[in-house]
Specification:
It is a single chain. The strands form six sheets. Strands 3-2-1-24 form a four-stranded antiparallel sheet, with no helix packed on it. Strands 4-5-6-7 form a four-stranded antiparallel sheet, with no helix packed on it. A four-stranded antiparallel sheet has the order 8-9-10-11, with no helix packed on it. It has one helix and 24 strands. It has a single domain, classed as Neuraminidase. The longest helix has 16 residues. By secondary structure, it is mainly beta.
């Protein structure tokens, strides 16, 4: 009876805190597939493949999903039409392609690739055509995100630390936004682009931070002995979904308010990572 009441309470809490669907990767017996956690707390598998699928993001219109997969070898980028259940492979080089993110209109995809010898940021059309290297740098450039104002934010290794950079979607106007110790990974601006969400190790452990772009003042949102990683904004920027764990059997999806309060665990079994919200 007590266990039943706990489950009811958890269901109610999840329903209150997560007003829309969340997509993420779940690993069972070293097999990674993509899952949906809906508004009622129910979990459904989107993929079921013997090779690993990871890092899902839903298109702005909610009709397609881009993700990385090892279905045909090293990491490649694929899409899934959520209406027809049709899979499409977008990249096919022998190099690794990963960390995909949609353009605001949903007609292009930005991603990381090693096809030119080191990690660079590329764009391509949503059908996989017209791949363009935007960074063309000797630095390692990773984890891009395409903002609503047509900037691409990414992490670039400068003097031993990953710093936050941004550029226009054609690769012009590159700008270094941080220059302090500690890695700053997977930057994602809020809607007005005055604040940037990211995770990093400036305090000795992977934690989640929010930086004011004008003042460069940083607010630490998490403080936990486990690693807090890969945060994503909700569509209205009121909540943040992220992963917390030790990369072992204790790695789960959490949600919190934008100020770091009301942290709630959403998954309870398996190894879960790379969460993001469905668009409204």
């Amino acid at each position: 009876m007590k266990k039943y009441l706990i489950l009811i309470a958890l269901f109610i809490l999840i329903s209150q805190l997560s007003a829309q669907k969340i997509i993420y990767t779940s690993q069972v017996n070293n097999n990674d597939n993509l899952m949906i956690l809906d508004e009622k707390g129910s979990i459904k598998a989107l993929t079921d493949h013997p090779r690993k699928d990871s890092s899902p993001m839903i298109s702005p219109d909610g009709k397609s999903m881009v993700f990385t997969s090892e279905r045909v070898g090293w990491w490649k980028i694929w899409t899934l039409n959520l209406e027809t259940n049709e899979f499409r492979q977008l990249t096919n080089r022998s190099s690794a392609d990963y960390s995909p993110s949609w353009s605001p209109e949903g007609n292009k995809i930005v991603f990381t690739s090693t096809r030119d010898g080191n990690q660079e940021v590329y764009t391509m059309n949503k059908d996989g055509s017209n791949k363009i290297n935007l960074t063309q740098s000797k630095s390692e450039d990773i984890m891009p995100f395409w903002s609503k104002n047509d900037y691409i934010y990414y992490s670039s290794n400068r003097d031993g630390f990953y710093q936050i950079m941004r550029m226009k979607s054609d690769g012009s106007e590159k700008e270094l936004l941080t220059n302090t110790e500690g890695n700053k990974l997977m930057p994602q601006p809020a809607g007005d682009e005055t604040k940037i969400l990211y995770y990093g190790d400036a305090d000795g452990n992977m934690e989640i931070y929010l930086m004011d772009l004008d003042t460069k003042k940083v607010m630490r949102l998490t403080n936990h002995p486990l690693m807090d990683m890969r945060p994503r904004w909700s569509p209205d920027y009121s909540q943040i979904v992220f992963e917390r764990g030790n990369k072992g059997n204790n790695h789960h999806i959490y949600i919190m308010d934008a100020d770091g309060s009301n942290v709630t665990k959403l998954t309870t079994k398996n190894y879960n990572y790379t969460p993001s919200f469905f668009p409204k």
